[in-house]
Amino acid sequence: MMEELFKKAGLAEIAAKVEGGERLSREDGLTLYRCPDLLLLGYLANIVRERKNGDKAFFIYNQHLNYSNICTNLCKFCAFGKDRDSDQAYEMSIAEIREKIRARLDEPISEIHVVGGIHPDLPYSYYLEMLRAIKEERPGVHIQAFTGVEIAHLAELSGQSVQECLRELQTAGLDSIPGGGAEVFSPRIRRLTCEKKLSGEGWLEVARTAHGLGLRSNATMLYGHIETLEERVEHLLMLRQTQDETGGFLTFIPLAYHPRNTELSITNPGLARTSGVEDLRNIAVARLLLDNFDHIKAYWVMIGPKLAQVALSFGADDLDGTIKEELITKMAGGEAEQAMADSELIRLIKEAGRVPVERDTLYEKLTPRS
């Protein structure tokens, strides 16, 4: 029965590869993206998902900290970054950051996730002091901070190589790196949407350098704007090649473009929010192409909790976490809440027929709390 369905959908050869554990090609990736049968894609992605993680679905008790939205890049797909003179611009002092951490000391937070803009004025010492302050307020917490774009900026700011800068950040408290800033690696897309941003190859080089120092990182792709299917596939294959080289990526996170309040939506008025079908398709294709990634995340903040729950049967094995406060998606019109109780995450996972596993940043299972 399934063989006939795969044959009818033009997926027979790909299905045989998936079932045999063979690596898929660029052409296979394009075929998957163009396949109209979403359920067959989910079926194949679920084979890989369960081969790697069984029925487990991971979540983390974490806190997001967006220390400033002042940014020199002002990417056309971003509603978060603001010019320093904007009435919406803000930056947190170290004292304010300390207060953010103190306000949640009674919660079992295991990770502080720190991301901000490319600030033109904050000194390098601010970032070191920030890391030290977080560790002082919450000793033992894992700090996942600064995208590859931010790290390249900090290296330039400090007058050091990326490797030297990362070593200093590690000493101050940096434990791993989030996956933002990757966007789509295509030079065409970066020229049209984020010409001031670090290049795709520059982002990958920061990741390689971090992995060489023992720092793990995440990877992302921003989809659903003006990129082609070919550019999506090429992005995924570049990540796969880098993972072959370093083995340092923890998880891949497809990020759905949110057009509201972005310059790109003004110049391209036909752009709209991605559909649920598109979101599930990207998760499934990523799970099938990224055979050397252990985890695929359904980021509930961007696609909503209900669709993230469904994604657990389309290749995803991780819902991210409690978040607590995330401004980047909210400023682009994100409608999901900024926080979710761990009990709600557990309920969503169980309802999806999966086994909830609370993890730390490195995907080590944590002892269940009573």
Task: Label the overall shape.
Answer: globular
Proportion of β residues?
5-15%
Distance between the termini: 46 Å
Multimer state: single chain
Mean of all residue-level pLDDT scores: 93
> Residue share in helices?
40-55%
- Decide which structural class fits the backbone: alpha/beta
Largest sheet: 4 strands, parallel
Element pattern in H and E: HHHHEEHEHEHHEHHEHEHHEHHEHE
- Got a strand count? 10
Strand order of the largest sheet: 5-6-7-8
- Rg value: 20 Å
Work out the helix count. 16
What ranges have pLDDT less than 50 throughout 5 or more consecutive residues? Answer: 328-336
Architecture overview:
By secondary structure, the protein is an alpha/beta fold. 44% of the residues lie in helices and 12% in strands. It has 16 helices and 10 strands. The strands form 3 sheets. A 4-stranded parallel beta sheet has the order 5-6-7-8. The chain has a 3-stranded parallel beta sheet with strand order 9-1-10, with helices on one face. Strand 2, helix 5 and strand 3 (111-114) form a beta-alpha-beta unit. Helix 5 (94-102) runs parallel beside helix 6 (124-137), helix 7 crosses helix 10 and helix 10 (200-212) packs parallel to helix 11 (229-246).
